[in-house]
Amino acid sequence: MEINKAKILDFLAGRKILILSLAFLLAASTLLYSSLRSGKKAEAAWWDESWLYRKAVNITNSSGSNLTDFQVSFTLDTASLISAGKMQSDCDDIRITDQQSNLLPHWIEENNPGCNNSATKIWTKVPSLPTSGTTIYVYYGNPSATNTQSGDKVFEFFDDFNSDSLNFQKWQTWEVDGSNAYNISGGKLQLTGGGNTGFITKSYSGNNYRIVSRMIGQSDSGLLCRVSDKDHLYLVRTNVAGYATDYFIRNGSWSGLGGGYPDFGSWANYRIVEFSANGNSLSSKVDGIQMNTITNNTFSSGGIGLRKYGGNPFFDWIYVIKYASSDPSSSLSSEEQSPGPVAYWKFDEGTGTTTYDSTANKNNGTISGASWQTEDMCAAGKCLYFDGTNDVVTVSNSVGNIKTVSFWVKPITTSEQFIDLNGSAYIQSSSGTISATGFTSPTIYVNGKVSSTIEANKWQHVVVTTNTAVSGSAVKIAQISSNYGQVFIDEVKLYPYARSAAQVLADYNAGKAKAASTEGVAVNLGAPKDASAGLPSSLSEGLVGYWKMDESSWTNDCSTATVIDSSGNGNHGKSCPSGAGSQPTTGKFGNAGYFDGSNDYVDIGNKDSLNFGTQSFTASFWVKNPPSTYGRVVSKMNYTGTGDPNDEAGWYVSAISSGLDWGIGDGTNIWTKPTYSYTFTTDQWYLITGVFDREKGFFYGYVNGSLVGSTNISQYGSINNNRRFLIGRRDCSSPSYFNGFLDEVRVYNRALSPAEVRALYEWAPGPVAHFKLDDGSGTSPIDSSGFGRTGSIINGIWSIGKYGKGLKLDGSGDYLEITDF
């Protein structure tokens, strides 16, 4: 008999793998069992570093069944936290998350006792509450957070009557014996109609639930449950015939169900009344004291309602929660402190000369010279541009114990100044290499990886860590000694510990993928939110020329650079000809340039940043009323018209009334200069984008974000030349002047992707005035647009808003005036 040794070896190897696998599973099971037996739960990652503190809230479920989307409450000593400066005085910075850092809705129970009390009651909705319990987290300690409370998102049904009128999307009139009437004032509803009148829910209906209301229920008032129409419902009456509560049913007519509980307390004051329905059981509570319970199985489901009979009851708020045999209980763990920064400058103010520290440490910076940039030019929200001459942000406070410096930067060159902490510890770059002078054994990261290489004209995430603390006794941003950086900078953070490699990578990925919070941590990479999801880079990435043409006027002398380049590369343009050149007029966004087709143009000059050699590049502009004859919109060329190989290298992108017009030549091969047909409508704006993708070997032409043509250009070599970059003509004796309107001219030193071209078409600048009205006090609200508008409140009063705070205007002499439009 022949023995197959290979099969035996395979069999033994398989047995060995099986044994090892079983051993591993046994060990893992033992560890899991030990962990569960010990009751320890994995600590959740910190939800958002902008919140400095949190407490774990341990929820116990003794109902005997798993609960889903269940309302849970806990109490928090907000008075002590506010007194210690750890929480906003109005509790606006409270947030609730689950263990996976998912944000949960919350509502602070008003006037029972409410914010700034030792036992503030906070409600939330927990997605899953197993019988083994769960843990959630309450965060606080963000001085810039706005109010996000929402009882509607927490409860099955909710109304706090904080509007000026009743919400008839939620309620409908209930009238049995009399006519209904009501008043709303100061966030409270009063029923003033006849007997057996009030309101019932318009659409809400449930089976087993608990109604809870803060109310003055004197003189036979009450709550209704399982309402199917005005004549079919249950009623719990309050303050009637010596009883605190008793029960009635209306099934075509009224019948008493008994269950009276002797009255106590004063119904002249607000009390917390609860009416519960579970199966055939009806029960109630007053101020937490259990009343009598009865049974009745006539109605199994329906809505809820508010009832008036003898007196005129008040209702402060009302909510409905799911029923459970026993309420979940909660206990708070000790306070934890954020692993977040000790200083954090978002640069999102958009106006003024102060950049505020987003931590509670108030390390505010003073801006000298640096200019505010709009969202499309930045990494996250707004940012600052430093011109490399004398622009700087200085911080007067001393920031101690710094072990990590983190920021987003777009340097104009590869040798720039970034951050100086104290005059001897600073971060800069030289010839594309980042150095961290004065840091002990620093680790440098670029875009989430250990690296010291940085590129020009690209947004990059730079982090420097050290295990030896550095003192930030004289923090300066974009200045080191007497040298200044020509940079865009955003999201500067200083940490009191060395961020791990995993944390640095997570920071970069969270920013790049926009996965962090809406409070400003996420890096939006500049493109519009609805169009840029997943874009590999910013619409300001690789931007080497950006002429917004928003100036109010240009100096027409062919020598003064008044057509400003907003890319940061200093490619400012001169308006020509002398004395009679183009002037700004109404544009697609703000102002635009009108070129007369006779002799108007803008001269940028021969700039290295606009010589692209063999690399990819993109030119884009908005155009209105292009001419019927050829005229060059953007070009860097000297074209004789023959198109033979002896013509100089160069390129152009333009538009004529019949389509998108472009060309390329390298001085060796014959020029390619096609026109992609497109019909332009008179007096309408169109976005023209030409992408010279040298890696793919194609030119792609787009109109309004859609591809209209493509051509192979793989045969062309370098297109460098000594010609001027011009807007409105070409650099030769036959200038081919453009006739029409131009706006938002952009040039990139890379090929935009199709998604980016579409995003560029869908992009629009932010508002020219943006008053969030979150100030909460005073008569001069802040403009967040970046234009520094002046607002003046006339007679209006501050109130709770749709988002954060807002203004209440009474319609009689109340208004917000913007005085400098």
UniProtKB/TrEMBL annotation:
Signal peptide: none
Matches recorded under PANTHER family: CHROMOSOME UNDETERMINED SCAFFOLD_146, WHOLE GENOME SHOTGUN SEQUENCE, OOKINETE PROTEIN, PUTATIVE-RELATED
Keyword check for Thylakoid: no
Pfam families: DUF2341 (PF10102), Laminin_G_3 (PF13385)
Keyword vocabulary terms for this entry: Disulfide bond, Signal
Superkingdom assignment: Bacteria
Keyword Electron transport among UniProt keywords: no
Occurrences of domain LamG-like jellyroll fold (ranges): 615-755
Protein name per its UniProtKB record: DUF2341 domain-containing protein
